[in-house]
Design goal:
The complex is a heterodimer. Chain A is mainly beta. Chain A is built from no helices and eleven strands. By secondary structure, chain B is an all-beta fold. In chain B, strand 6 and strand 7 form a beta hairpin. The chains are: A mainly beta, B mainly beta.
Chain lengths: 115, 111
């Protein structure tokens, strides 16, 4: 139980285009979703926290107009990287708190490459 | 100084060895998490603990709240245990607890 499905797993896009990443909670309601970015050999960095039905909370230094987060339902949160640049190339992963013994369920991650 | 620190950063072990990864934290926490990140990037939650000890198969996690220290042990290690192990502190911010991550321990278990 408590699965978060994340798509796409890999995406290559051209500079200047936008990419949408989806995270769906399959068997539980995710009122909160955390979005992280991870550069190679580095730790996860929290980008923003989305809450169903309200505006996302962004961490310091993360541009909210560039990384658009939508959490329109209890089972779906999306992150859109707008006007992507090569420096946005990274591994993006979502995570939702749940009521299991483990506390958090992670998506499988999206490896974004901007060329 | 990071709020959550792990050691060692890298660890190589032979199959069958007993492995210990340590985590120290400097903040007040509501829980301590151990995560496993596979080479492809996927992350699996292994343990969430706020006191004492938990065991799941060959994995054991302990926490000492007074010393602000946690350990993850792997008994009878196997090459399939090769992964990055991350400890993360859950800091209650009111609405939902954020996780503060350690830098990870890269484990390689060889035959």
């Amino acid at each position: 139980g408590a699965v978060v499905s994340q798509h796409p797993s890999r995406v290559i896009c051209k500079s200047g285009t936008s990419v949408k990443i989806e995270c769906r909670s399959l068997d539980f309601q995710a009122t909160t979703m955390f979005w992280y970015r991870q550069f190679p050999k580095q730790s996860l960095m929290l980008m923003a926290t989305s809450n169903e039905g309200s505006k996302a909370t962004y961490e310091q230094g993360v541009e909210k107009d560039k990384f658009l987060i939508n959490h329109a339902s209890l089972t779906l949160s999306t992150l859109t990287v707008t006007s992507a640049h090569p420096e946005d190339s990274s591994f993006y992963i979502c995570s939702a708190p749940n009521m299991t013994n483990y506390g958090y369920t992670f998506g499988s991650g999206t490896r974004l490459t901007v060329v | 100084k990071n709020e959550v620190e792990q050691s060692p950063q890298n660890l190589t072990a032979q199959e069958g060895e007993f492995i210990t990864i340590n985590c120290s934290y400097s903040v007040g926490i509501s829980a301590l998490h151990w995560l496993q990140q596979h080479p492809g990037g996927g992350i699996v939650s292994l343990f969430m603990l706020s006191s004492g000890k938990k065991k799941h198969g060959r994995l054991i996690a302990t926490i000492n709240i007074q010393e602000k220290h946690s350990s993850l042990h792997i008994t009878a290690s196997h090459p399939r245990d090769s992964a990055v192990y991350i400890c993360a502190a859950s800091i209650n911010t009111g609405t939902a607890s954020k996780l503060t991550f350690g830098t990870g321990t890269r484990l390689q278990v060889t035959l």
